[in-house]
Amino acid sequence: MFVTTWIRSTVLTLLVLLYSNAFADSRENAEVAGNIVLTLLPAAALGKAVYEQDMEGGWQYTESIVTATAATQILKYSIDAQRPNGADDHSFPSGHTSAAFSTASFIQMRYGWAYGAPAYLAASFVGWSRVYSDNHYTRDVLAGAAIGIVSSYIFADAYTKGVAVTPIAENGIYGLKISSRFTTF
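RESULT FIELD:
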């Protein structure tokens, strides 16, 4: 079941990315392709929550994305960072990437790696499109990704139907907690 779901999700994600990348023959088209993928990610997260009748997950996603967006906007207007294309001085951090990674990490935490891995692939494409289109530097995208991931780790409950991977930073100890719930029949 996991492998079949993962294969279907990954193939669908790759098809969307390839279709979007077909428009990415220029910097402007790469930006449009990234925007398309960014629009599809939240639709997928909320669609999955509705399909699973997961109202709690829907609210957790909302809290996560709102927090990521607020943190990103506060930093954008607090830090004077010129965009590579010179458009304005609100380059740091990337809002598109923050939203994309908030969504991807929510999907992974809530519904597992079968859905999370393709979502992270799509979020990475969004980040790439922001750098390639000269809207952001790599540092902006990395900071946006970190903000998005952290916001989901704050609000989303860990995936309990399989393996959950959670970062740990406590008392000078840093690492990953890997957990699973085993059931007996």
